[in-house]
Amino acid sequence: MRRLLLTISIALPVYGCVQIPPAPTPPPTSMSSWGPLGGFTMSSGANCAGQAALVNGKSTVSDPCFTDTSNVVLCTDATAPSAVACKPSNGQLSISGFGNDVVAYARLR
User: Fold this and answer.
1) Which residues, 6+ apart, have CB-to-CB distance to 24 below 8 Å?
2) CB-based contact 87:61 (threshold 8 Å)
């Protein structure tokens, strides 16, 4: 009985420390298409995405991936169904919304 308890008391901490590393992120890929009404290019695995917590309804994300006001950015309130507004500029993204919600954002192009 002592031997069993000793084995368990040694094995549990050792096996509890074994961790599996997270899977690496997939590499970015691009897809282009053209049709009679025009074409588009879409990229996946974009590095310019994340979440920002609002403080009194406002937040600013500083990231060099935002290059100017012509960037297309998608924003959504991840906390509640509330309206949000995102305005990209050179080196930052200004977000406004409701209270202290969390806003998810992604730059498309």
Assistant:
1) none
2) no
d(C-alpha 17, C-alpha 103), whole Å: 34
pLDDT in tens, 56-90: 999 999 988 888 888 889 999 999 888 999 999 99
Nearest to 101 by CA among 68, 65, 76: 76
- Cα–Cα distances (Å) from 46 to 38, 43, 97, in that order, read 23, 7, 24
Do 66 and 48 touch, CB atoms closer than 8 A? yes
Model pTM? Answer: 0.57
